[in-house]
Amino acid sequence: MELRAAMAGLAALTKPCSVEIYSDSKYLVDANNKKWIEGWKKKGWKRGKGEKLANADLWQELDRLRAKHEVTWHWVKGHAGHAENERCDDLATEAADGEGLIEDFGFEASA
């Protein structure tokens, strides 16, 4: 869900800009800061030794969205009192427990 949150935030921007994204997902932050995305892209959206990249469709969309902006990625420890992170976690939990969830059609195709 952290990946989708970053995508939604970037998609909401109406013009190229400088943006800072904070996430408690080391995977998301490291994929950007350690240039893993560039490596996956060069390998045809595969991991090392040709292994399938989980959620490749989402990573490709994130790559497309972030290319329009100057993005700085920050990792924050989850459940550690970071007010904005705690609020996001509460909202995500509330939404996941709610009604009318949107089906993720790409999930089944990538499994």
TrEMBL record:
<comment type="similarity">
    <text>Belongs to the RNase H family.</text>
</comment>
<dbReference type="InterPro" id="IPR036397">
    <property type="entry name" value="RNaseH_sf"/>
</dbReference>
<keyword id="KW-0540">Nuclease</keyword>
<dbReference type="InterPro" id="IPR002156">
    <property type="entry name" value="RNaseH_domain"/>
</dbReference>
<protein>
    <recommendedName>
        <fullName>ribonuclease H</fullName>
        <ecNumber>3.1.26.4</ecNumber>
    </recommendedName>
</protein>
<keyword id="KW-0479">Metal-binding</keyword>
<dbReference type="Pfam" id="PF00075">
    <property type="entry name" value="RNase_H"/>
</dbReference>
<dbReference type="InterPro" id="IPR012337">
    <property type="entry name" value="RNaseH-like_sf"/>
</dbReference>
<dbReference type="GO" id="GO:0004523">
    <property type="term" value="F:RNA-DNA hybrid ribonuclease activity"/>
</dbReference>
<dbReference type="GO" id="GO:0003676">
    <property type="term" value="F:nucleic acid binding"/>
</dbReference>
<keyword id="KW-0255">Endonuclease</keyword>
<dbReference type="GO" id="GO:0046872">
    <property type="term" value="F:metal ion binding"/>
</dbReference>
<dbReference type="GO" id="GO:0043137">
    <property type="term" value="P:DNA replication, removal of RNA primer"/>
</dbReference>
<dbReference type="InterPro" id="IPR050092">
    <property type="entry name" value="RNase_H"/>
</dbReference>
<keyword id="KW-0378">Hydrolase</keyword>
<feature type="domain" description="RNase H type-1">
    <location>
        <begin position="1"/>
        <end position="97"/>
    </location>
</feature>
